[in-house]
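Notes continue from the previous slide.

Worked example: a multi-chain complex. Inputs as given:
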Amino acid sequence: MVHPKLFGGVEAGGTKFLCGVADENGVILDQVRIATTTPAETLGAVDAFFAQAGARHGPLAALSIGSFGPLSLRSTAPDYGSITSTPKVGWSHVDLLGHFQRTLGVPVALDTDVNCSAVGEYLFGSGQGLGAFCYVTIGTGIGVGHLLGGVPHTGANHPEAGHIRLPRAPGDQAFEGICPFHGDCLEGLACGPAMQARWGVPAEELPPRHPAWAIAADYIAGLCATLTYILRPDRIIVGGGVMQQADMYPRVRTALEAKLAGYDASLRGLDIDAYVAEPTAGASAGLTGALAIAHRLITRQWPMHWVLGAHQNSVSTLSKVS
Ligand code: ADP
Ligand code: ZN
């Protein structure tokens, strides 16, 4: 019997793993949310989910994982496919790629969670049709993906643009930053936990008129200016929890225009509202992006026929893995 091709996706985060199985039309047949605990327990639950889904729907053709990092992504590296040194306790040097190659025995792709969300935006959201764009997340950390023709840019390893150092925002001199590696790099100053450490309350509890927002917007705009000068993408899509604060997009756009300072004719003609865009591929863009990468691993093509509605509305079963 010939099974229809099925694709597996995992969005591996610091608090939860979202796993799904989709068919050739991008309809998610099964999905589950697993709390991130120890690697053994978490990966065991993911294995159990795919075993259960396999029994129900048939074997996977391929799997793709979008994971928190840092990751080792150069195929010739001895630790290729592993998480490298992460502050997330117990998860350093976990061989994600090798684990799923062993347990599933099918082609497996690994990329950053940010790059998988960026692919989700390329296929279903604000990156559709764009030859070159950046996807930025300002959340628990700060991550950046750069896609050319929908394909994430990877050099000797994935970029780490969240860890660049920027000039201090006006009025922000004292806070030492929380990055365990660099202290006051961008992530150390402007990710959600940095805002909490600096102001003493979770970012979402800061009132709209608090000076925190102008400072955060200055740093995010500084990142956008840097990406613009180095890469000049068609668009920068900015997402993540911190951007949910009302007024963040207008604040970042205004601060970015000030930083670009009219430099270069092409920048002067920029439509800033379209350039700094909100993500629109939904909260599970990372999972849908991962599923699309699994599809591409087998077919060598992006599944342009997949539509976001199929992912959102056609979930037939919500599988619980105990
Ligand atoms: P993750 O990065 O883990 O995927 P999020 O993108 O949701 O998760 O980011 C979580 C961070 O965003 C937390 O530090 C939280 O304080 C912050 N956050 C969540 N909601 C808001 C909000 N409405 N305004 C500002 N910050 C928020
Ligand atoms: Zn850093």
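Summary box: The two ends are 31 Å apart (CA to CA). The longest strand covers residues 28-35.
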